[in-house]
Design brief:
It is a single chain. The chain is an alpha+beta fold. The chain folds into five domains: 234 residues, 2-Layer Sandwich (BirA Bifunctional Protein, domain 2), CATH 3.30.930; 196 residues; 103 residues, Beta Barrel (Elongation Factor Tu (Ef-tu), domain 3); 153 residues, Threonyl-trna Synthetase, Chain A, domain 2 (Threonyl-tRNA Synthetase, Chain A, domain 2, 2-Layer Sandwich); 121 residues, Diaminopimelate Epimerase, Chain A, domain 1. The protein is 36% helix and 26% strand. Helix 9 packs across helix 12, helix 10 crosses helix 12 and helix 24 runs antiparallel to helix 25. The longest helix is centred in the middle third of the chain and has 40 residues. The radius of gyration is 36 Å and the shape is globular.
Length: 991
């Protein structure tokens, strides 16, 4: 620090985050200025903060205690007023999160590893909901289902885990979103090299003191213990043997597995080496895990050595950043803390001066915002199922937490606004070196977050109303059973899980009304959810199956289908019910593996080809015919032809002629090219930010899912159809080429949702219209599509729309079918086609009027019937003479029952209570409760009366304090339920 025109001294704490500035204050102005709102502690004189200049008064000698800034600005104000601004960078750029990541990748690249990009958070694996580990994209290689493309690799993988969500913010290390740095060996090197490089990276590259590193090994892994002690030189007292639960990695009941070894950093080496517990979070943090995948666990639990021994490691980027940046937890690293600072600003609180509860909330926001931004960027939109539920749950947790911190609206004065987009901008700003695609998707991310937050604010308000009703029910039930009022744990959990209410808030509101919460049952519900979450999100299933063994002897299938629909091939394998066989006879379902094929296997949304396999003999006979109904890819790039043997017998090793059905192939080609045109048309009409969220290319139609926040207008659909049919009419010749992935992205090629790509990709281009990475089959000229028609557009999830359309032959069939329907309709209505709309509108109006007349007649009949019942009303109470009528009205419909109840309360005069029930149809019950103001003033609500009544009849309902309706499904219980309601009202009215 320099250029200050007064003497000063700056003292730095041992961990480098706290600073004490001392200086004389003679001549400094004494008038106080703005309070130190950012919250860095100070005594007097010089104020220190980031971003904004803040001043304070000074005494004869000043001291400023500076807490935790990354870049500190020092401002002194003297007489005459003059300002000096000095920036002191307090953190070594080599310890930044971006630097740690790059140094890891460079370290392993220099040792022969291929640096590969992070996979999507949406894994190409049906057994896992989200990407939870760096090894996931290499799972097929570890299983031996696909050959390795490189001998070793290094990655920085985005990961999501939610099984420990309740610990986020409460501990120093739990996160939902994190980056896992990993180095992987696919049979290239094993324990010795992995251990050597991990130690070299930790001590030499990152500069961690060797005497602060501890090692854990599997209890029976003497080889690894010896490598750490004899080769690396780690003292025996700092190598801890742990059991199977801690240090033996398994993927499931069976499959690849092996011992692991972990490296821990010791924050307090002065505590010695006796009675050490590596699980003590106050002293240790595990930052590097080395898995030695060397066994296959069999069904009987026995272990057999794998033919190819693999290395799978994971180094937590946030954990290493915490260590190198010398901060007390992962959240205060430069990877997350800028988000926390922004959240604190919106909440108008100081993180440095905040209590533990406030800091926890800010940490939750900082962590969850990273998770939701990267999930939405990877195509996961909020919904109530699957991955979408994970996003929705995290978003709701952030919104709820922000409101608890006092964030109102957008936190910047707009009470109707949203604050998540403001925080998301900070996440996006930090994303450059994590995932460059996030910035290109920023507008969609911000719009989705805004929409979901504003929707949830309404949900919160509904939840508050539901809580009020639940508490009222708890009081009512307590009165009936003469017990202390208690809200069920299940209800509290519904409020927590569905409406975002922390149980602490629910408990606080309940206590104000003298109601307790059954926390035992709440904890049971929470545990159920935790177990389901852990099972759903954090299990990577690997298995060595029969197919994997078969794959060892079968090479990838050579695909010929771009250039031909018929070819000779050799049967490499046969499977019946998943098991290999040598031959299969007529009538059997079979899966056939060929060395080469013209059949397209389902991928990229396009379904597999149909056709036939013919096994020929010398005399040109056809002893075997297999009808192929589907083709799938398995075990990497092996095509599995699924079909039925209709003639003869087929054998392994024999030659067959494979013939694709040309008509069905053409239908698939037409629909696939039309899908590309549809995506381009959508981007032109509704905006470039829309992106694909799934597709289906079938023989009879195409389906395209895309991210968009509202239904498309009719005029937009017409414009989209017009564009596509124009491009079809242009008769453009498609261009197909193979190029590097980097070059394809540079040229603007669009990637297909959910697809994985190698270094070389196939690019399909409709010149001037569309360019996409695609392995599917396409027409050679857009004129082959002939015509395109959208048949439906609808929402399928929050922020996701779906268009179904037809093209080619399917388009012609659709038009002819619709034309036939129109002819039949014209004949029935006896009008011309152009007159159908007007005629149908007239019929609907006639129907509406007729229904109104019928309804009015029914209401009159019900009122007449009700008038005959009024004499049955009884008088309750000695002072107010309240009139009570509880009756059944046989088969009167719900609307008429309502009219009858309204008539009766007017007829009986205030105060009066009317309860009516009816059975308007098979298995149906209608119920009405109507109360006059005088009864409502006694504290009696119609909803409280009708709820137990409806429950007895197998239904539910509600309404206003003076009027409530309900339905049910148990007519046999109606009379008994009405009698119970009569007795309940008598008790209430007699008080």
């Amino acid at each position: 620090m320099s250029n200050l025109n007064f003497p000063y001294s700056l003292k730095t704490s041992s961990h480098g985050r706290d600073f004490l500035l001392e200086f004389p204050t003679s001549g400094f102005q004494s008038k106080p200025y703005l309070p130190f709102s950012r919250g860095y502690r100070y005594s007097s004189g010089l104020i220190v903060r980031t971003q904004t200049l803040v001043y304070a008064s000074s005494l004869s000698h000043g001291r400023a205690h500076i807490k935790g800034p990354r870049v500190v600005q020092f401002v002194a104000k003297a007489q005459p007023v003059a300002e000096e601004l000095v920036e002191e960078k307090l953190r070594d750029p080599q310890t930044s999160g971006d630097s740690i990541r790059q140094r890891f990748l460079d370290f392993y690249a220099a040792r022969g590893h291929k640096v590969l990009p992070s996979a999507s958070l949406v894994p190409d694996d049906p057994t896992v909901l989200l990407t939870i580990a760096g090894m996931l994209q290499f799972k097929p290689i570890f299983l031996g289902k696909v050959p390795r493309e490189v001998p070793s690799a290094a990655t920085s993988q985005k990961c999501i885990r939610t099984n420990d969500i309740e610990n986020v913010g409460r501990t120093s290390r739990h996160q939902t979103f994190f980056e896992m740095l990993g180095n992987f060996s696919f049979g290239d090197y094993f324990k010795k090299e992995a251990i050597k490089w991990a130690w070299e990276l930790s001590t030499s590259e990152y500069g961690l003191p060797a005497d602060k590193l501890w090692i854990s090994v599997y209890q029976d892994d003497d080889e690894t213990f010896a490598l750490w002690h004899d080769e690396i030189g780690v003292p025996k007292e700092r190598i801890i043997r742990l059991g199977e639960d801690d240090n033996f990695w398994t993927s499931g009941a069976t499959g690849p597995c092996g011992p692991c070894s972990e490296i821990y950093y010791d924050f307090h080496p002065g505590r010695g080496t006796s009675n050490v517990d590596l699980g003590d979070d106050t002293r240790f943090i595990e930052f590097y895990n080395l898995v030695f995948m060397q066994y296959n666990k069999k069904d009987d639990g026995s272990l057999e050595p794998l033919k190819q021994k693999n290395i799978d490691t994971g180094l937590g980027l946030e954990r290493m950043a915490r260590i190198l940046q010398k901060v007390p937890n992962n959240y205060e690293t430069d990877l997350i803390f800028p988000i926390i600072e922004k959240a604190a600003e919106l909440a108008n609180v100081s993180y440095a001066l905040a209590d533990d509860s406030t800091k926890t909330k800010l940490k939750i926001i900082g962590d969850h915002m990273r998770a939701v931004v990267y999930l939405i960027s990877d195509g996961v939109n909020p919904s109530n199922i699957g991955r979408g539920y994970v996003v929705r749950r995290l978003i709701r947790r952030v919104v709820r937490t922000g409101r608890l911190l006092g964030v109102k609206g957008d936190g910047m004065g707009d009470l109707q606004g949203a604050f998540l987009p403001i925080l998301a901008k900070k996440v996006i700003q930090l994303s450059t070196n994590i995932d460059a695609d996030v910035k290109t998707r920023a507008s969609r991310i911000l719009e989705e977050l805004k929409r979901e937050e504003l929707r949830f604010v309404l949900t919160l308000e509904r939840g508050e109303k539901l809580l009020d009703q639940m508490l009222a029910d708890a009081l009512l039930n307590a009165q009936g059973t003469e017990t202390a009022p208690c809200l069920s744990g299940k209800d509290a959990f519904v409020l927590y899980d569905t409406y975002g209410f922390p149980v602490e808030i629910t408990n606080e509101v309940a206590e104000e009304r003298g109601i307790s919460i059954d926390m035992n049952s709440f904890d049971i519900e929470m545990e159920k959810q935790r177990q389901l979450s852990q099972a759903a999100h954090d299990t990577v299933k690997l298995g060595v199956e029969n197919g994997a063994n078969l794959a060892e002897d079968i090479p990838d299938t050579e695909f010929l289908g771009y250039n031909t629909l018929r070819s000779k091939a050799v049967v490499e394998g046969l499977l019946v019910n998943g098991s290999p066989v040598a031959q299969v006879s007529k009538g059997s379902e079979v899966e056939i593996l060929l060395n080469r094929t013209p059949f397209y296997a389902e991928s990229g949304g396009q379904i597999g080809d149909n056709g036939f396999l013919y096994m020929m003999e010398a005399e040109n006979e056809q002893p075997a015919i297999v009808e192929i109904k589907d083709v799938q890819k398995s075990m990497g790039n092996i095509f599995v032809h699924k079909g039925t043997i209709t003639e003869g017998m087929i054998e392994v090793g024999r030659e067959v002629e494979a013939a694709v059905d040309p008509n069905l192939r053409q239908r698939a080609k037409v629909h696939h090219t039309a899908t590309h045109l549809l995506q381009s048309a959508l981007k032109r009409v509704i905006g470039q930010e829309t992106s694909q969220a799934g597709s289906l290319v079938a023989f009879d139609r195409l389906r395209f899912d895309f991210n968009f926040h509202r239904p498309l207008q009719d005029k937009e659909l017409v414009e989209i159809e017009g564009l596509i049919n124009q491009w079809i009419g242009d008769a453009a010749i498609l261009e197909t080429k193979v190029m590097s992935l980097t070059d394809a992205k540079r040229d603007g090629a669009i990637a297909m949702f959910g697809e994985k790509y190698g270094e070389q990709v196939r690019v399909v281009e409709v010149p001037g219209v569309s360019m996409e990475l695609c392995g599917g089959t396409h027409v050679s000229n857009t004129a082959e599509i002939r015509g395109f028609k959208i048949i439906s557009e609808q929402g399928i999830a929050s922020g996701v729309r779906r268009i179904e359309a037809v093209a080619g032959d399917a388009f012609i069939e659709y038009v002819l079918t619709r034309d036939n329907y129109m002819k039949q309709l014209c004949s029935t209505l006896k009008v011309k086609a152009e007159e159908v709309t007007g005629r149908v509108g007239g019929l609907l109006e006639e129907l509406r009027l007729t229904r109104n007349e019928v309804s009015a007649a029914r209401a009159k009949a019900a009122i007449y019937k009700a008038s005959t019942l009024s004499s049955r009303a009884s008088t309750i109470g000695t002072s107010k003479n309240i009139r009570l009528l509880v009756e059944s009205m046989d088969d009167v419909d719900a609307d008429s029952l309502k009219s009858a109840a309204e008539y009766l309360v007017d007829l009986l005069k205030d105060p009066a209570a009317v309860v009516l029930g009816s059975c308007p149809g098979d298995g149906k019950v209608s119920l009405v409760v109507a109360l006059t103001p005088g009864v409502v003033d006694l504290g009696i609500k119609a909803g409280d009366i009708i709820k137990p009544l409806a429950k007895s009849c197998g239904g539910g309902g509600g309404g206003r304090p003076n009027f409530a309706q309900a339905g049910g499904r148990k007519p046999e219980n109606l009379l008994g339920a009405l009698e119970e309601a009569r007795e309940q009202l008598k008790k209430l009215l007699e008080k």
